[in-house]
Write a sequence for this structure.
């Protein structure tokens, strides 16, 4: 079945440093979504990417979808303590268009 | 609007007991989902529904049953709980017709002893 892998599993950064998490799929994706989960909370949707090579920005967050639509990344510039949480990627394939397959997540800790 | 709500928030079961988790959404969404979240494993899809009266199996359906008798509600049942079902359960919903963002409920923390 489809597998979505995310690295790193954990990342500790000093406040103000940059952060990147990477997502890789074993199969070509139709689209990819990113979610953020604060400690003790529930996943909250951040963005969806659909096109090959697509890049989207939300303030300090930059999301990319690979040319082959098998990988994606989330980059945070100048992290803040409010960025703490676990970031998940989740993708769909043409064969399972109604289901999202989630990566295992990257847990970000920001040290003040 | 309350969004997606889940009942109960916490529950402790003994092995072999049964229980039902209730998910309700007030956004008129067609699609609803049940996930389980275990440490280091992300969210895994248990069952989902693409409309009232329909259900389908996800990645890890064994030991669970679901029902969607009303559009706004999605029930997850455990007939005979096992320690391996100790987890945090999240319900989510989304608009139908292609994948849209999913809105998650606050979760139910279940412990099976």
């Amino acid at each position: 079945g489809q597998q979505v892998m995310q690295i790193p599993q954990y990342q500790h950064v000093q406040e103000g440093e940059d952060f990147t998490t990477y997502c890789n799929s074993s199969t070509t994706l139709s689209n990819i979504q990113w979610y953020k989960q604060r400690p003790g909370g529930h996943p909250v949707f951040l963005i969806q990417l659909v096109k090959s090579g697509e890049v989207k920005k939300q303030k300090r967050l930059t999301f990319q979808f690979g040319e082959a639509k098998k990988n994606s990344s989330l980059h945070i510039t100048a992290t803040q303590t409010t960025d703490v949480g676990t970031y998940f990627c989740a993708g769909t394939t043409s064969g399972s268009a109604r289901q999202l397959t989630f990566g295992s997540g990257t847990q970000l800790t920001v040290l003040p | 609007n309350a969004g997606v709500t889940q009942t109960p928030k916490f529950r402790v079961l003994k092995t072999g007991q049964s229980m039902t988790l209730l998910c309700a959404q007030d956004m008129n969404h067609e699609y609803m989902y049940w996930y389980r979240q275990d440490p280091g494993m992300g969210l895994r899809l248990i069952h989902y529904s693409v409309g009232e009266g329909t259900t389908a199996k996800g990645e890890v359906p064994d030991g669970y049953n679901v029902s969607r008798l009303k559009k706004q509600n999605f029930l997850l049942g455990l007939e005979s709980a096992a320690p391996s079902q100790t987890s945090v359960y999240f319900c989510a919903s989304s608009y139908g017709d292609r994948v849209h963002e999913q809105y998650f409920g606050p979760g139910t923390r279940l412990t099976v002893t």
Summary: Chain A has a mean pLDDT of 94. Chain A has no helices and eleven strands.
